[in-house]
Design a protein that fits this description.
Blueprint lengths: L1 E7 L4 E7 L4 E5 L5 H8 L3 E6 L5 H4 L2 H7 L3 E3 L9 E4 L2 E7 L8 E5 L4 E5 L2 E2 L2 E2 L9 H14 L5 E4 L5 E2 H7 L5
Parallel strand pairs: 3-4, 4-5, 9-12
Antiparallel strand pairs: 1-2, 2-3, 6-7, 7-8, 8-9, 10-11, 12-13
C-alpha cells in the first residue's frame, strides 16, 4: 500500500490517500483543498473515505467527494469497534480511541503496520481534550489501549505534524510514558 500525505487547509491537517496496485484508493480525512486531493488521487478509483473524527479541519472537503458519486464513508457512527473491514484489496480494523473527541476512531492496516490516528496522538504530544466531547479520562484509556495493543514498530499517521512510530512516541512523548 502506498500512502500519500497531503497537508491541507489553514490548520495544516494531514489528509492521506492510500493506493494499491489495482489503481484503487481510500481517502483518510479529506480536510480541505478538494482540488489538490483530487489531483493526487488522479485516475485511481476512490473506494471509500475514512474519517478519524468530525472536526471541521478533517472533513472540510468531504462534501465535494459526496457530490460526485456514491462513496461509502467510514466513521464512528457506522463502525463496530475492533471489527475488520474489507474494501477492495484494503483490509483494516477500526478502533474507538476517544479523548480528543467522543467520535475518534483509529484505522489499523495490519499488513502494513499502519495506524491512522487523526488527532489522537501527535509526534511528541496528543490531541487536545478540552474541546466539546473531549475527555482526559477517555484519552488516558485510549493511550493505554494503544500501548497494549499495537507493535512498537507500528507507524502512526497523525492528523497534524509529522508521521511517527509508536516506539518513538513511547520513548519521547511525555503523554505515552
Amino acid at each position: 500500500m502506498e500512502v500519500i500525505r497531503l497537508v491541507t487547509g489553514l490548520l495544516d491537517e494531514n489528509c492521506y490517500i492510500l493506493k494499491d496496485d489495482n489503481n484503487t484508493c481510500l481517502l483518510v480525512d479529506p480536510g480541505d483543498d478538494y482540488h489538490d486531493i483530487k489531483d493526487k488521487i488522479g485516475d485511481s478509483k476512490l473506494l471509500g473515505i475514512l474519517i478519524t473524527h468530525s472536526h471541521f479541519d478533517h472533513i472540510g472537503a468531504l462534501r465535494n467527494f459526496l457530490n460526485k458519486k456514491s462513496i461509502k464513508i467510514y466513521k464512528k457512527s457506522n463502525l463496530v469497534d475492533g471489527k475488520e473491514y474489507e474494501i477492495g484489496d484494503f483490509k483494516f480494523k477500526a478502533y474507538y480511541t476517544p479523548g480528543h473527541s467522543a467520535d475518534c476512531v483509529s484505522f489499523y492496516f495490519e499488513e502494513d503496520k499502519a495506524l491512522f490516528v487523526g488527532d489522537f496522538v501527535f509526534k511528541g504530544s496528543i490531541g487536545r481534550c478540552d474541546l466539546p466531547t473531549g475527555s482526559s479520562e477517555e484519552m488516558a484509556k485510549s493511550i493505554k489501549f494503544l500501548k497494549e495493543t499495537f507493535d512498537k514498530d507500528t507507524t502512526l499517521y497523525t492528523g497534524h505534524y509529522e508521521i511517527t512510530t509508536l516506539d518513538d512516541e513511547i520513548k519521547t512523548n511525555p503523554y505515552l510514558k
